[in-house]
Structures are given as C-alpha cells and as structure tokens.
Amino acid sequence: MRTFIAALLGATACLPALAHATPIFPDPTDPAAFVPAIDAPSALADYRPYREQQAPSWQALNREVTNPAGHAGASHGSMQSSSADAKEDGHGSHREGAEK
Question: Which helix (H) or strand (E) holds 40?
Fold first, then answer.
C-alpha cells in the first residue's frame, strides 16, 4: 500500500510539468500556425462526359413500328363478328335475354 501511495504522489508531482506541455495540434485560432496539406481525391476523378448516342430518326422508328413483320402472331384480318358465331361459341345465351 505504501508503494501505491508513493507512485500516486510521484505522478501527482509530475502533473504540473505536463499541464504546460505544447499541444500536438496547433491552435485553431492562430492564423500563422502551420497546417499540413491535405491530400483528398477528387470527387470527379472518374467522371466521363455525356456523349450523344446514334439514334435512328423518327421516320425509321415509325417504319419499324408499322412493319407487319414485327407482329407475326397477330392476324386481326381473319376475325369474325357475326351474331351466328356468337351463338355457336356458347356465349349467345347472354344476348337471348335481351331479345325476349
């Protein structure tokens, strides 16, 4: 216990000498203080400027949309809409109530 108290008193005796030590960092309010340079990477280092894409003209796009080859599965010219066909497909009963 005596050694602990002696160590504590020794540390306390050195404390005033450490209180006036120079700080590691310079005073932020001192305009003449030396400040090390900061090396920060640029946020725009990987920037690639926008380049206009080669797009087809609106006439070429209209031709592509109206081209029947693009709609090979849809053949709307062969659709029939007669009332005889409606009765044959089993849905004619929906209209029979209106005729009576």
Answer: none
Handedness of CA 17, 18, 20, 24 (dihedral sign): positive
Side chain identity at 60, as an amino acid letter? Answer: A
Please, which residues have CB within 8 angstroms of residue 24's CB and are 6 or more apart in sequence? Answer: none
pTM above 0.70, yes or no: no
Residue count of the chain: 100
Q: What is the pLDDT of residues 51-100, one digit of tens each?
A: 888 889 999 999 989 977 655 555 555 555 555 555 555 665 666 555 55
Cβ contact 3:10 at 8 Å = no
Contact call for residues 92 and 86 (beta carbons, < 8 A): yes
Distance CA 73, CA 69 (A): 9
Shortest CA distance to 83 belongs to which of 74, 93, 75, 73?
A: 93
